[in-house]
Amino acid sequence: xxxxxxxxxxxxxxxxxxxxxxxxxxxxxxxxxxxxxxxxxxxxxxxxxxxx
Amino acid sequence: xxxxxxxxxxxxxxxxxxxxxxxxxxxxxxxxxxxxxxxxxxxxxxxxxxxxxxxxxxxxxxxxxxxxxxxxxxxxxxxxxxxxxxxxxxxxxxxxxxxxxxxxxxxxxxxxxxxxxxxxxxxxxxxxxxxxxxxxxxxxxxxxxxxxxxxxxxxxxxxxxxxxxxxxxxxxxxxxxxxxxxxxxxxxxxxxxxxxxxxxxxxxxxxxxxxxxxxxxxxxxxxxxxxxxxxxxxxxxxxxxxxxxxxxxxxxxxxxxxxxxxxxxxxxxxxxxxxxxxxxxxxxxxxxxxxxxxxxxxxxxxxxxxxxxxxxxxxxxxxxxxxxxxxxxxxxxxxxxxxxxxxxxxxxxxxxxxxxxxxxxxxxxxxxxxxxxxxxxxxxxxxxxxxxxxxxxxxxxxxxxxxxxxxxxxxxxxxxxxxxxxxxxxxxxxxxxxxxxxxxxxxxxxxxxxxxxxxxxxxxxxxxxxxxxxxxxxxxxxxxxxxxxxxxxxxxxxxxxxxxxxxxxxxxxxxxxxxxxxxxxxxxxxxxxxxxxxxxxxxxxxxxxxxxxxxxxxxxxxxxxxxxxxxxxxxxxxxxxxxxxxxxxxxxxxxxxxxxxxxxxxxxxxxxxxxxxxxxxxxxxxxxxxxxxxxxxxxxxxxxxxxxxxxxxxxxxxxxxxxxxxxxxxxxxxxxxxxxxxxxxxxxxxxxxxxxxxxxxxxxxxxxxxxxxxxxxxxxxxxxxxxxxxx
Lengths: 52, 727
Fold this sequence. Notes:
heterodimer; B: Rossmann fold; elongated; disordered N terminus
């Protein structure tokens, strides 16, 4: 049962990491143009140097 | 773990926002110019547009949003959209300017993001707590169970405090005006569940409802978010329509030069130049120039009226032939547009009496739940004299009856139905529009601009000799008047070549004249060529000998008008035609479409009054109209539709906007709306059945947190799946 002392915090931290990542994506506007983004990734135009 | 939390793809519509009072947060910073690009569809388009724009001197940066089909451009202050549109047109893309001021309100989506964030937190917390609860249900005892309960409490309390805020706020708003809404039982259930669970946990009891409180919040927030998204998508599309009309006017300065200003900056007494094809920005009086005015959007008349100095004009009229100078007598809110707004306000008071299905359900449901829960508390307390048992059972009753499925029943269906109609080209603006559309039994159409496309069509080409037609064609080509354009189109289609007419000159407000074989020839208004004006729209041709010959015109039907009327009649709806145009024109159209009842020469207040009378007779009226003269009628009707080409005021007054040219979706929409309402009722029934099964268990004290979780999740999922069948 001592195992729970590690496992529960670990599961909570992993969940919180996912939640933070999601909140970050929402805040940085990554859902503003899903259709455009899904196509931009196929272009090699800005591959060598990122778009300013 | 967050996989389930990803928003549905349409969070795409960033744009949808809410409180205009909030500080504005722009997409690319300082986006100054917004362009609508209806033609872009692929990666190559994005690259080309961005490259072309960036290569233009004065442009600092450009970003295309493919989902919204829009480009936001940051440029030097002196750059104008008019400089950039040709650049894109050369590259092969159609571009229209969007009014950045109107769009800025749509750029922030704070409410949407806020709801999404709360949904994410509720989802994260409920899954963690659910995992802990599973171990409790599968037999954890004593210290282990207590520890799990305490951890659950530690996660639940802050999560609820954050995620359930919208419910707390709504419930408080309702209670402070002494009313009950759906949120009151929700908040009561959540709070009671938390209190009893904490109490149980501190006494190391068996049952804690932390997972139920969180799952409840999660499902309800999902319903709210769906509901919000549907309305936001509609609002953003409606705002885009408004933003397409950039309100600019040409003001004459003291020394006679023209300057381009925003309509909002015009003052009474300003001299304004209105070019042919332009729309009057203000009410005023003509001081210079002669022309003809198209007043169809305001009055429904199709025949252009003659305008000369001293003639009064109203905002919204379209100048057809010659440039005019107008002295403003009323600007902004004082124009005739605003006078119509009073009529609209009176008419709208009737509509607000409609109660949505959700509200009706809430009205039955909210008191019922409270009474049931209170009764079981009192009953158990009298039976056992044990406060703890009684409170536990009361909480279980509240949680089990909590309107998870009810909260999802309406938004899930409306989202599915609105999405389906949007793909067909209809924009549902009002949240209860679908329910109201389903009840419609009478349909009233406006004529000009709604059933007809507003462009004339030559009807009597066979009556003329080839020589006359060729002269008329030559004269008509010298003018951009709509009748001339229609004449040219028909003659060209018949393979005619223009005769050789010299000295061609357009006389604004009258017509075109020229010299043909030494004779003066004229094409224009009846009085100008020496003929008697008849009841029908006509242009007259005089060739210097014999009587002038009339060219008659009728309005072309909008595509799908005949099909829409036929389909509506087939489903047993009564169809009426009410127009401000002359009796002859209205009767001809009514006969052509097989509409038995028609009214001509109706003033705006006549239209609204007639609809009010039909409503009093118990009919549910659907009004379809586009003009300013229809706005009051649109607002008075049970539900209303206007085409995208309508005036802004008409679009605002209507519940549904038709995006394409085609009218056929109207009949489909009625069918979809009826199906949607049927699904909503089914959903209510499903939710009730679940309650009927689970509530007796709860009242009898047999409900465990496991049963609560099962009943809640399965009813919510069934309801959502049932709604999806609509697609």
